[in-house]
Amino acid sequence: MECVICKNGNTAKGFSTFTLEKGDCIVVFKKVPAMICQNCGHAYFSEEISTQLFEIAEETVAKGVEVEVRTLKTAG
After folding, report:
1. Contact between residue 72 and residue 32 where contact means Cβ atoms under 8 Å apart
2. CA 58 to CA 13: how far, in whole Å?
3. Residues 19/27, Cβ–Cβ less than 8 Å
4. Is residue 17 within a helix (H) or strand (E), and if so which, with residue range?
5. pLDDT at 76 over 70
6. Minimal CA–CA distance to 23: which of 65, 69, 71?
7. 8-67, pLDDT tens digit by residue?
8. 24, 37, 40, 52 - which has most CB atoms within 10 Å?
């Protein structure tokens, strides 16, 4: 896929770090599967991965956690 950000790179499977912030809570996910632009490094996440990230983040916010860093565990 051609990168929509830089328009010069193509994407390849890889891993990225993704940070979500809501109110006083920050959740950092490491080793998130993504399609990464080989030129600018922009990460594209699938709908399935995005849904998983947001569900985990909502659970974390509900627990009142201020900062959490975790490695995303995916099937496969």
Report:
1. yes
2. 27
3. yes
4. strand 11-22
5. no
6. 65
7. 999 999 999 999 998 899 999 999 999 999 999 999 999 999 999 999 999 999 999 999
8. 37
Distance CA 73, CA 76 (A): 9
Confidence (pLDDT) at 73: 77
Please report the DSSP string for 32-71 in residue order.
EEEEEETTT--EE--HHHHHHHHHHHHHHHHTT-SEEEEE
Tokens linked to 32: 């998130």
User: CATH for 11-71, among 3.30.870, 1.10.720, 3.10.20, 3.90.1150?
Assistant: 3.10.20
Structure tokens at 66: 């201020």
- Phi and psi at residue 44, to the nearest 5°: -115, 125
Give the number of other CB atoms < 10 A from CB of residue 29. 21
